[in-house]
Design brief:
With 86 residues, the protein is mainly α. The chain has three helices and no strands. The longest helix is centred in the first third of the chain and has 23 residues.
Length: 86
């Protein structure tokens, strides 16, 4: 066979193989997830409240909050504080 003809045949086979390999790689997307409606979301959270856990916040008493504020304020100015009863 002529060398040029052989090159043309090899090029055509290579293009066909490349096009054939590209088709499965670029096939349509598969849908694996979907958006939930508000009703579905509410039903899921109602069934299992741990899906939407609310963090617990510790509430300080007025005295504890004032003591913490004074301690932080004193620390920012480098003042040593001691606990004294008024």
């Amino acid at each position: 066979m002529n060398q040029n003809m052989l090159l043309v045949i090899v090029a055509i086979v290579g293009l066909a193989a490349g096009a054939g390999g590209t088709y499965p790689a670029t096939s349509g997307p598969d849908v694996y997830s979907q958006a939930l409606t508000k009703a579905e979301l509410i039903a899921a959270i109602s069934a299992d409240p741990s899906l939407c856990a609310v963090p617990m916040v510790e509430m300080l008493s007025e005295e504890q909050a004032l003591a913490a504020f004074r301690k932080a304020h004193a620390a920012s100015y480098g003042i040593e504080t001691t606990c004294r009863d008024p």
